[in-house]
Amino acid sequence: MLGDLGTYDALCRALSNATECIVISVDYRRAPEHRFPAGLEDCYAATCWVANNAEAIDARPDTLAIAGDSAGGSLAFGVGLLARDRDGPAIDYQVLAYPASDYAFDTESYEENAQGYFITRKDMERFWDGYLQSELDGEHPYASPLRTESLDRLPPTLVLTCGFDPLRDDGTELASRLSEAGVSTDHVQYEDMIHGFLIMLSDPELDRAHEALEEIGERVRDELQ
Question: Where's the Alpha/beta hydrolase fold-3 domain (predicted)?
Fold first, then answer.
């Protein structure tokens, strides 16, 4: 519902430097004008295009990773599920930063961090209400990854969560379920951070954003080289 290509331009440039990869930022359709699954299908279509046209953008045709934060983390995970269920494209790695993983607001982190930490429980309720066409859509695994029956055959995954974030427990549960399904999964929690801290790179006092970016860069390089 919020943000655009410009909002994430600095982060995408920093991500390209950290990973030593070409980064494609997708200007997907946003809610509430375009509800689920419009944005997800846009992201999947862009992923397919990149996979089929790597040489056109001077990218290596045999490596592909997906990444996103917050709503983008949910969309990235949905792309991974679609790629698995639709037999492609092949994805080598995925990075999910504090993803919105379930249409529910009943975890301890939703109670502990309901207000006062940048994003609130009421914010999340408003975002979900704007994104879904109906509550029934909230049960769909492509919208709520935690409701996916099986998480097997997904790419190796890095999940980042924040201590002061209503979505903390959803991300933690997602990482746990991926591991249980046999997916190579790394979960890194930044205990002292709030939701959305990755886009705060311009704050010279927020070293943790740069640390997280270095973490992502190292893991992506290791997986794709």
Answer: 2-198
Active-site residue identified among 42, 165, 169, 170: 165
Contact in structure between 133 and 90 (CB atoms under 8 Å)? no
d(CA 97, CA 8): 14
Please list the helix, strand and coil fractions of the chain in percent, rounded to the nearest 5, in that order: 45, 10, 40
The one catalytic residue in 25, 42, 69, 70 is 70
Q: Which token pair is 6?
A: 């410009």
Set out the domains of the chain in order of their start, with CATH numbers. Answer: 9-193+216-224 (3.40.50.1820)
Mean pLDDT of 34-58: 97
Give the residue-averaged pLDDT of 206-218: 93
Round the average pLDDT of the chain to a whole number and report it.
96
Active site residue 176: no
**Residue 17 φ then ψ, to 5°:** -65, -40
- Per-residue pLDDT, averaged over 120-145, amounts to 97
Burial of 141 (0-12, 13-18, 19+ CB in 10 A): middle
